[in-house]
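Here is this case:
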Amino acid sequence: MYSVSERLRSYMDDRQRGIIPMAEFVNLVRYLRGRITLLIGVFIFGLVLGYPLSGDIISWLLQANGYLPDEVLIIIIQPMEVILLRLRIATQIGIAMAFTMIMIDMSWNGSKIISKSNKNKIKQNSSKLTSLFLVFLSSIGLGIIGAIYAHNILIPMLLDFLANDASSVGLTNTWQLQSWLGFVIGLFFGSIMSFQTPLVTLLLLRTKIISRSSLIENRGIIWFFALLLGAVLSPPDPISMFLVGGPIVLLLEVALLIDKLFTKSHSSPK
């Protein structure tokens, strides 16, 4: 039988062995709370900037090849449908810009997030401006790759599956504009954000907010939630689930490999 104090100590030890240790987690929450005003401002800026752009995005999606399967009719049911769709696109642009700002801010001030006990473990191998530039370019590049993946593979495959599934039981495919484009835009947004996995992982590892060992120990949990996300967003078949959740798993492994190579190159004697 364990006493209450022993059970509490065991629970705290488990929390310390989690993906993010308690000390770093508390500091991370405090740090982000101090950035709320900045993030809200960036989000509003993206929202205002994104609304005029949303019209061009909708026009492009309507004309894109592979986004409208054969024998599918698009209809508008609600008078406010297009306006609500444009607001949704602008909101996602604002969220993406705020997320990018968080990563840029972490690359500049990441050492302020970690607990005092770990500050002496960080070695600054490059200037902050160089890190800032690399994070910005990496985020843009990964986002473009994610958009290409969604455009050429993910979206056409899923839409064809859904259209053929309805046709196979004798139903006529009549899709509502907001539901159809909302689904497409959601896949675009999810793919772009999921392809940020290597950058987010490397930032958390290099700033010591999380450790490589904790990621490896909890790898199965991360894989499970990545594939669960794929199951939620995709049709109920293993191939579709992997096409949505698989990139997160693969990109996480790529990030761990890059971190391993980076650590070896800086720890080897010169």
Q: What stands out?
A: The first strand starts at residue 72 and ends at 75. The first helix runs from residue 4 to 16. The beta strands are 72-75, 173-176. The chain has ten helices and two strands.
